[in-house]
Amino acid sequence: MPVGTQATVKSLRNEALDELGAQILLGNTYHLYWRPGHELIRKLGGLHKFMSWDRAILTDSGGYQVFSLSELRKISDEGVRFRSHLDGSEHLLTPEKAAEIQLALGADIAMVLDECIETPAPRDKAEAALKRTAAWAKRARAYFVECANRNGDLPQWQFGIVQGATFADLRRQSAEQLLEIDFPGYAIGGLAVGEPHEMTCEMAAEAAALLPKDRPRYLMGVGRPEQLADYVGLGIDMMDCVLPTRAARHACIYTSEGRVLIKNSRYVEDQRPLDPECSCSVCQRYTRAYLRHLFAAGELTAAILATHHNVHFYLDLMRQIREAIEFGNLVKFASGVRARYAAGPA
Amino acid sequence: MPVGTQATVKSLRNEALDELGAQILLGNTYHLYWRPGHELIRKLGGLHKFMSWDRAILTDSGGYQVFSLSELRKISDEGVRFRSHLDGSEHLLTPEKAAEIQLALGADIAMVLDECIETPAPRDKAEAALKRTAAWAKRARAYFVECANRNGDLPQWQFGIVQGATFADLRRQSAEQLLEIDFPGYAIGGLAVGEPHEMTCEMAAEAAALLPKDRPRYLMGVGRPEQLADYVGLGIDMMDCVLPTRAARHACIYTSEGRVLIKNSRYVEDQRPLDPECSCSVCQRYTRAYLRHLFAAGELTAAILATHHNVHFYLDLMRQIREAIEFGNLVKFASGVRARYAAGPA
Lengths: 346, 346
Fold this sequence. Notes:
Chain A has 346 residues and is of the alpha/beta class. Chain A contains 15 helices and twelve strands.
């Protein structure tokens, strides 16, 4: 899922996302809550209509940004109290409030509020957070179903989120707690926040093994190109990451041969496309020398072209992963990508 | 002509310019001389190939930016000596050098080097600058024809530039001097730099009346929407202006009803397109409320969408002006645009 934090994928028109074949975007509830505000979006007909995007949207709960961006946060069983990073005003995010905001936004998939903790975390802290996360999931589901019943049907798919830090048994326990509540889809959160890739895989595997095969399994906030196939191999169906778009704005281009840091002087006269094997519209028309120039000159067009290419690269990588599954050679495919990415710049 | 200063129209992919029907772009020699450098562009096959644009390009002489951006400039009959605004290095721009750089860039239309002076200017200063401008035009043409003869044909249309500040007789004198040299097209420079619109029109009219009807007449660096028809009425065929693109980045939208300052809170819930009468792809898909949000949130996509619309507005305005000429009602058309633009914000 390309990330459309503030109701846009940075530097891409929706027309570009149409061309790229994006089927679903992620919107950030925390950001949309502040700007333009979920009540305004509700009033204007929901996020799809507001941003003129008729394919799927997933919104997160806002919790992750409250924990990472806001000031003076104070967690209790009720919810999390925090100050706006914009104007200092005080707010309270509860499981019910997170569900309510997301109902107003009206995305296709909504996430429950969970407690995000820093890793590595001591076991007692992880256990306490997990207990709260489980209680919050139950409240979020109850609130959501009650609201939905008032309106006659369930307007969104609400996903639970497996937590448990880096403790395998806590991950399993969390998955079981959520299965009892019964969600139409399940996410795995609190990973890829600094721990080694092997640990991420181990924790994701513990959870994924327990989650039902016929419901989406979503690993939140990943990943690097060389990691995606690993996650899919563990049973992950959905991922989101700012990497392709953020890296693009910093002149880091993903290619079939690995990362290309396009500002490097070696590309000054390079008349090849960003990726000679890429079929995206940027690679059909523009050269590395031109992209390098646009970045050196500080032109907005640089971000537009690089982002377009990188999002194509990620979506195409996922298409290739699906193909590798069909042909039964996912493991080989994964190691091929890893080798190409190990050789180049980080 | 949309302005593509550094080999891109800021925040527009060439695909957008294709869609908008842009037939010609302006590139700035001064900027391209520094970044990526004219020798590199020559080596990579010229500006068209470098930026992947196969319709027409016009490059200016670089003189205007030398006079307005560079430090420690010193003018003599030889040329203008100046320091780079980037690294402080010293450079000399002569009429021959300006022609040579533009031959390297390889645009379809190139401009001679002229001396730009601040206005209002005293008559003696304007006369001295005009004398130098005439001498430089002669040298530029001679150099260009000599280079071209070496290569067998004239690779570009080289335009002379009428100067003369705000003195009608100097403007006439300048036009006559250029006619003697015989250029395939003529520009009128040094206007719209602070003097009243009526003065711009008067000076443009003096020059245009003497310039041949069968050769392009190009008024440099104009103009506001409500002024374009006036200039066309004086016999002007070509114009360039950063206004549509620069205003777009500052959230100023041109519409059939006048300027819309889209950040204004009155547009928070406005679900109409930027311009209800506009046929551009931005107006077909996005609302004012959404554009306002994108600007408020500081999203790059705001500049992309606003620029696309504003360039469409300008190109469409020119189409309407051509139509008004065909129907014989240009004067009425001009006063209609003026009235709509007088009512709204500046």
